[in-house]
Amino acid sequence: MPMLADPSAKYRPYKPFPFPGRQWPTRVQEKAPIWLSTDLRDGNQSLANPMTNSQKLRFFRQLVKLGFKEIEVSYPAASETDFQFVQDLINNGEIPDDVWIQVLTPARSDLIKRTFEALKGSKNAIVHMYNATSCLFREVVFNADQAKTVSLATQHTQLVRELAEQYAAEHGTNFRFEYSPETFSQTEPAFAVEVCEAVKKTWLAGTKSVFGDGRNEERIIFNLPATVEIATPNCFADQVEYFCTNITQREKCIISLHTHNDRGCAVAAAELGVLAGADRIEGTVLGNGERTGNVDLVTLALNLYSQGIAPELDFSDIFSVTDTVTECTGLPVHPRHPYAGELVFTAFSGSHQDAIKKGFEAYQKRVTQGDVRWELPYLPIDPADIGCTYEAVIRVNSQSGKGGIAYIVKQALHLDLPRRMQISFYQIIQAISEATGKELSVENITGALRSTYHIGGPAYEGRMVLRSFNMTNTPGTPGSTPADGESGDRPRYMKAKVSVDGIIRTIEGEGNGPLSSFLNALYRAFGIELSIREYTEHAIGGGSNVQAASYVELIPPQADEKDKTKGGFWGIGVDPDITGSGLRAVLSAANNAWAGKELKGLDIVPSAARLS
Predict the structure, then answer these.
(1) Domain limits of the chain?
(2) 481: pLDDT confidence band, cut at 50, 70 and 90?
(3) Does domain 24-329 have CATH number 3.20.20.70?
(4) DSSP assignment of 269-284, as one string?
(5) Dihedral of CA 345/348/349/354: which sign?
(6) Is the pLDDT of residue 207 over 70?
(7) 219, 167 in Cβ contact below 8 A?
(8) What angle do CA 572, 575, 581 make, to 5 degrees?
(9) What is the model's pTM?
(10) Under CATH, domain 459-609 is a member of which superfamily?
(11) How far is CA 468 from the centre of its chain?
(12) Is the dihedral of CA 127, 133, 134, 138 positive or negative?
């Protein structure tokens, strides 16, 4: 059946109720809400293959480690497995003294009594009771009017109160009570307030403390669930603010939200709901839940973190979280999932990579000046804060650009390629990527650079290899080498030993510095005629281990000087001696320029000069 040309014939639009007094749009969130994880209950019931109790225990321990102080652990009256899990947590001492476990029950007497039995021996427990209140459920599912719905809620609240008083006295358990007007987002706002007022009156009418240690903290939790997300987040926020401003004794209420993700807006609805006055959020780590899921607590918490607000949950090791979710639930984590996805901090796009590379460079400069504020293009938080490494920030495929490739080379090899050399090497990587059709690893990229520019050891050597050199003021006379490699008024003389096709050659030349002298020697010996168009250098490392890295672009006589993007050959040299690094860079470029060409002067070679 195809989609309807006119869906209005079948679907009614949501009609927001008039609420001109709303204040939430101008508010700013300044602190974290109270968090409750319902991974072990709501998240578990949505799985095709529910977690075993051992998997639930692993998940529970992870939630405690993350810092959750309220954890909904099961619907104990639903099955013996759920009942036993609650008892195992209690009897095996798995629940820290500052953590409250929460259990769910519908407004049914037999199930409420079974729920309390599961809580025997617990220190801190929240009993969460619900009944559906929306018009659709009242009429279609329960055939009940508003009065019957209120009566159902209050009668069972009274039972919860009596059992809480009994178990507090007999077992020393501290109890809190949570009530959900289920399907709140589809309930008439005034009726949602009415039923919760009746529930509150019943709960607070108790004469005995429900805290075994004698405390008198009996605030009631009202959970306002978007059981099915049917409207835009601003409409939900209006409903929440209306409830918060119309419920009496607000100071005795904790307003909680449980947003579902049917429209893909659960995070936004929860954030706006907090601005509207809510105190608490129920959800799951990474958003697992019925249909499209619950609100994602990782996203909510790290959204706060990115705004400088401590979320009071610790996601310093985000990969341990994703591992737990994947292994316990059998659900994969999408590689682009906010904050937690494998690729969420990774850029393949060339323009993104270039901006990130420049952003890191600017950030490092600011840090040296004492400014540690995080401001980087495309990275709302520092990946290192949640246990991610910078190695994965930029990855290369056929869509990548020179900036990203240069970033990887700099991170892996500490070589800061000149901009025009980046363009040249980018073309090489682009060709490899397009030929393979796959993402290139760091090893692929650095291996291509070593092979192209003949650096990194014997495995990458070109046809010509520098073995030794000596600079003199006049032929046969020792002399000092100009510090910048090309200064000095008098001619300089170079004698070098170069291996060509495995044979040692001694070559000589002159010029105004080491590089020009070496180029002259290459021309005299082999007929290689090249000149320098660009030369840069920088240090690698420091102290006694410092090395020099040199980059040179050589051009043949016929190169077009007007078009600096054509006709050049790049080379890289790395050596503890700055002159040595420059000469190696020249020979690296010369190898590329003369690849496959005939070298003159190789016809007469003493056999003793051959390398073993």
Answers:
(1) 24-329, 350-453, 459-609
(2) very low
(3) yes
(4) HHHHHHHTT--EEEEB
(5) positive
(6) no
(7) no
(8) 50
(9) 0.77
(10) Alpha-isopropylmalate synthase LeuA, regulatory domain (3.30.160.270)
(11) 49
(12) positive
